[in-house]
Amino acid sequence: MAEELRRTGLYDLHIEQGARMVPFAGWEMPVQYPMGVMAEHLHTREKAGLFDVGHMGQVLVIPKDGNLETAALALETLIPAAVLGLPEGRQRYGLFTNASGGILDDLMFANRGDHYLLVVNAGCAEQDIAHLQTLVDVDVVPVTDRGLLALQGPKAEGALAALLPAVRQMKFMDSQIHDWNGAELWISRSGYTGEDGFEISVPNTVLREFTEALLRNPDVAPIGLGARDSLRLEAGMPLYGHDMNTDVTPAQAALGWSIPKLRRVGGARAGGFPGAEIVLAELANGPTVTRRGLRPEGRAPIREGVEIFADEDGGQALGKVCSGTFGPSAGGPVAMALLDASLPDGTRLWAELRGKRLPVILTELPFITPSYKR
Amino acid sequence: MLKFTEDHEWLRAEGEDVVVGITAHASEQLGDVVFIELPEEGREVAAGEEIVVIESVKAASDIVAPVAGVITAVNSDLADNPGNVNADPMAAWFFKIKPADAAALEGFMDEAAYQALIG
After folding, report:
1. In this structure, are strands A91-97 and A57-63 parallel, antiparallel, or unpaired?
2. For chain A, is the Cβ count within 10 Å smaller at the N or the C terminus?
3. Shortest CA distance from B50: residue in chain A
């Protein structure tokens, strides 16, 4: 029997807005609204898109001894990032690795003065929480009384500032607490679209009210998971379970940038996380395969699972597409695949689609220029 | 005279040919169409054969030949402007087919029956 799908606090609002709901990572989520995926995508790039991301896991990690450094060092045993040294009010991207150097999940973590706030993928949340609970020096507290919104696009700042003027001062990857009508909002200037924008954790008690206040702004439209996928793909951002998983290492996923020098060989806090030897050796030597961008020459999208070849005929597949769709802002299909790291950008390869090989060009990621407010 | 198939295609008799497109219901289900691959003119096809590839932002799907026959024309303008399928599905024809059996259209649903099917 199928497990019952969970719903966010905005389920009724999605239905009223005419959303088409689909199962996603155990949740019933809006894949699109009547505007349609293409228009929703373009609206986000031109104005502001509002996404319900309340399916994602929000988790507090609190040091038992009251010393934040204790929590930072505990998290560094699971995450190859600099947790210690992250200033209060700032957020970073990181990965949970496993003993073979594969990726268990990717996450955001923020320094909130006396604890860390983590945001993890919906499909991995349960496993991540269990993983965190192996740390003896911290309390791990899943946040269950809040929703999570993402407001993304060039008009996001104006739309949020109309309700909370102080957010104009926030910079990319700032993480702050703001009061809205007596409710505590946890706001970070970040997102998953390549656009400037915010991710806003809202108490369930005011979630609908706050969401409707944003939607009353004519620049803001609700956006579904369909456009979220094409937006993040154009921005060259990997999606867990597709572009990375337990068989893919940080270097292969092209996420080595999230592992700073001080966690690498020769660094002050080198290693000390699961799979460190494998992960660090590969970062030092360079991976043989890594996540690359592909742009088909024609208009046919190449999707997950499509095999890539060096030649128009014969030969063994070089790899498979891990994410691919039509990119409305790129004006054509876009895809990512794990491929030979030594092939130069611009190389012409072939994608086998419905028995035919179609030309694709190896392309530097991202496919669009991000517009973060640094 | 307009007829409909269970595969959500509309069929319109035009002389000896049948013009084939997809219904508004089908185009809504597909979402924004971004790519269309049409069959060769002159190709002989069997009923139910997948002859058009239609890619939306969400997924790839096929359009089947509603009847056996020969493809007499394809709408290459539509392949250049795939979004027309969403903008005006009843005007966006994909191909014309000359049925092997001149009475081939008779078994298909009329509009009332099709509306009942999709609810």
Report:
1. unpaired
2. N
3. A354
pLDDT tops 70 at residue A2: no
CA dist A26 and A69 (Å) reads 35
Interface check for A328 against chain B (CB to CB < 8 A): the answer is yes
Structure tokens belonging to residue A150: 């993402």
DSSP for residue B104: G
Question: Crossing angle, helix A225-234 and helix A37-46, to 10 degrees?
Answer: 60
Instruction: Tell me whether B35 touches chain A (CB under 8 Å).
Output: yes
Mean pLDDT of A109-129: 98
A224, A20 Cβ separation under 8 angstroms: yes
Are B35 and A326 inside 8 Å of each other by CB? yes
Instruction: Decide: A336 and A233 in contact? Cβ < 8 Å.
Output: yes
Residues A253-265 pLDDT 10s: 999 999 999 999 9
Cα gap B46→A144, rounded to integer Å: 56
The tokens 């806003």 sit on which residue? A200
The half-sphere exposure of A104 on its side-chain side, counting CA atoms within 13 A, is 21
A-chain residue closest to B52, CA distance: A354
Co-location of A112 and A174 in the same domain: yes
Phi-psi region of A346 (alpha: psi -120 to 50; beta: other; left: phi over 0): left
ipTM for this prediction: 0.83
Report the domain count for chain A.
2
CATH number, domain at A182?
Answer: 3.30.1360.120
Instruction: Tell me the C-alpha distance between A204 and A208, whole Å.
Output: 8
